[in-house]
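COMPLEX REQUEST
Ligand: adenosine-5'-triphosphate
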Amino acid sequence: MSQTVLSKYAIPGPSVQLNEVSVSEGELRLLDNISTEFFAHGWHAVLGPNGGGKSTLLKTILGLTAHQGTLQILWPEQSECKLGYLPQSMPFDASLPISVRDYLLMSLSKKPIWFSRKLPAEIQAAIQQVHLTEKLDRRVGDLSGGERQRLMLATALLKSPDLLILDEPMTGLDQSGQADVLGILSEYHQSGGTIIMVEHNWALVEQHCDQVYWIDQQLKHQAAPADFFTNRPQDIQPRLEDIQPNLPELNA
Ligand SMILES: Nc1ncnc2c1ncn2[C@@H]1O[C@H](COP(=O)(O)OP(=O)(O)OP(=O)(O)O)[C@@H](O)[C@H]1O
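STATUS: Structure written out below.
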């Protein structure tokens, strides 16, 4: 990645504090009384069983879901208070006849896109980073799953966010796609940004993340990756197919 691109990234990222945060849908309790802190500049991994509330937690931090309790994003003074979000699935109907170019232009600007056909430098840099330059005129619906995922990451990074919220960013990526994305995220993290991401791949979490949060309606456990399994409470039952390799103690 070029220095020009890196220098546009946000420095530094905020911390996110939750105090007794709960989310309900009618009678249903999606999140129950969560208190924790995602510390500033951290690379945080949110894990837990399917349906445990991980995406709901991200949406709550983004302000997309009503909650009880207190949630604060503590932006550093010099921060521009910008968020980037990569949702779990495409945020629009992929059958719409819209090109990669127009999707990125619409993501960056509120102006009608027919006034600005020329690609701004930040879009060119972002699209280069995720190796989609050749696909600019392709319909978004015709991209492969991995290409769509890389387009969404480029979109999340486009406005130089201070906080990056990612819901399973590795979905659909092959090994080289994953390596590209991890490279981008590592640089973003090193430049000071805060990352909160849902990720099932334990090997990746162990290698890259600072802190792990196990969400199953409640925050069942929180620790650095190195301490997570030795200190975990008995009622955490990781799905072994989600928690990948090098956990001999669990795979025995
Ligand atoms: N708007 C809603 N109305 C009713 N139930 C909902 C709503 N949103 C989410 N849920 C339910 O809340 C639970 C948590 O959903 P959520 O998507 O946060 O889980 P998750 O941990 O991200 O799951 P997965 O690992 O499968 O992606 C699920 O049972 C889901 O069906």
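REMARKS: The pocket of adenosine-5'-triphosphate is lined by residues 25, 28, 30, 48, 50-56 (CB under 6 Å). Residues 3-93+159-251 form a domain with the Rossmann fold fold (CATH 3.40.50.300).
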